[in-house]
């Protein structure tokens, strides 16, 4: 097991050397203002990620054969630059497979996967619309789908971007459905739930997560919306006497769930259930992104009274962790 995780670095003495193993998430060759070359890295493990610098790329103690997606063993120290924690690396080599455990390197949900599955299965069992129920059951019963659905991240680097993130996101949405949908009688609960469960199903083929989170070639060329709609359509066509109108509505839920054409949806939501799916999906994604940003700020040594970095998903806004800020005053 790793001894020093990225989450531990804020508590280490600055400039004190240490050894650890990380996953290379990004590697770029750059130059300083004085034209001196250096390597800019983003390193990660299951507790987060951090920027790192190799100031002497030609040092013989720095491997020349590592790339994005490799696991490396580094020796270096942490320090703050303009208030942000980063690593200065003095030695680096590719790690042998026996030196690391994949589960230590890739971020993963903090929830128990079996419990998440139980919540999902309970929701499916509660369907009162039999055709939608047999559709969802048929898709999740596929061994490939079942295995990937419990492992896949929900995104490469935005919301729920960790192992099990897709399942966690779906279960979170299921909880929101049963809180919000009863308030609006016009909504068909089972159709909203079907959209919740299937809207991102294409991500199990859009993304790869063996040693990092990347897009597959299919994902790059088609995207998860098109892939998911095709998966759902194939499943519905294989079910005897599946109602044509219900098929149209299910496909519309998947195709419109991003809410806007500029966000990748080929159609805008044009039924109440699709509109609700978009609202809930967007809310859950943004709130989880915000939670991750606050965790990142704490890892980098920021105090409760400091704003987060700019958040792309929130129109480049910086945000304050209001709960932590008030709790600091109470403790003080």
Rg, please? 22 Å
Query: Uncertain spans, ≥5 residues at pLDDT below 50?
Result: none
Given the helix and strand composition, which structural class is it? alpha+beta
| Proportion of beta-strand residues | 15-25%
What are the secondary-structure elements, in order, as H or E?
Answer: EEEEEHHHHHHHEEHHHHH
Polypeptide structure, described:
The chain is α+β, with helices and mostly antiparallel strands. It contains twelve helices and seven strands. The strands form two sheets. The chain has a five-stranded mixed barrel. Helix 5 (165-180) packs across helix 11 and helix 9 (224-238) runs antiparallel to helix 10 (244-256). The model has no long low-confidence stretch (mean pLDDT 89).
Give keywords.
two-stranded antiparallel ribbon, five-stranded mixed β-barrel, 12 helices, alpha+beta, 332 residues, globular
């Amino acid at each position: 097991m790793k001894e020093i995780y990225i989450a531990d670095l804020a508590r280490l003495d600055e400039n004190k050397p240490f050894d650890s193993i990380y996953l290379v998430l990004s590697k770029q060759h750059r130059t300083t203002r004085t034209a001196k070359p250096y390597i800019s890295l983003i390193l990660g493990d299951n507790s987060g990620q951090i920027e790192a610098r190799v100031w002497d790329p030609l040092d013989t103690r720095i491997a020349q054969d590592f790339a994005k997606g490799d696991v490396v063993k580094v020796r270096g120290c942490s320090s703050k630059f303009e208030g942000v924690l980063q690593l200065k690396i003095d030695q680096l080599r590719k790690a042998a497979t026996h030196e690391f455990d994949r589960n230590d390197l890739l971020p993963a949900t903090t929830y128990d996967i079996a419990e998440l599955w139980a919540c999902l299965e309970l929701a499916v069992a509660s369907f009162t619309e039999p055709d939608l129920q047999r559709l969802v059951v048929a898709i999740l019963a596929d061994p490939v789908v079942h295995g990937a659905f419990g492992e896949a991240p929900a995104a490469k680097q935005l919301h729920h971007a960790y192992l099990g993130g897709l399942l966690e996101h779906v279960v979170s949405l299921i909880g929101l459905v049963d809180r919000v949908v009863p308030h609006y009688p016009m909504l068909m609960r089972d159709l909203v739930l079907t959209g919740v469960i299937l809207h991102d199903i294409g991500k199990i083929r859009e993304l790869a997560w063996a040693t990092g989170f990347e897009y597959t070639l299919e994902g790059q060329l088609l995207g998860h919306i098109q892939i998911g709609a095709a998966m759902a359509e194939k499943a519905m066509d294989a079910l005897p006497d599946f109602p044509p109108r219900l098929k149209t509505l299910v496909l519309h839920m998947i195709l419109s769930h991003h809410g806007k054409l500029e966000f990748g949806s080929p159609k805008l939501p044009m039924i109440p259930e699709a509109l609700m799916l978009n609202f809930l999906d967007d809310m859950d994604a943004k709130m989880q992104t915000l939670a991750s940003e606050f965790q990142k700020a704490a890892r980098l040594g920021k105090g409760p009274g400091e704003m987060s970095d700019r958040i792309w998903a929130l129109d480049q806004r910086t945000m304050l962790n209001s709960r932590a800020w008030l709790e600091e005053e109470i403790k003080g």
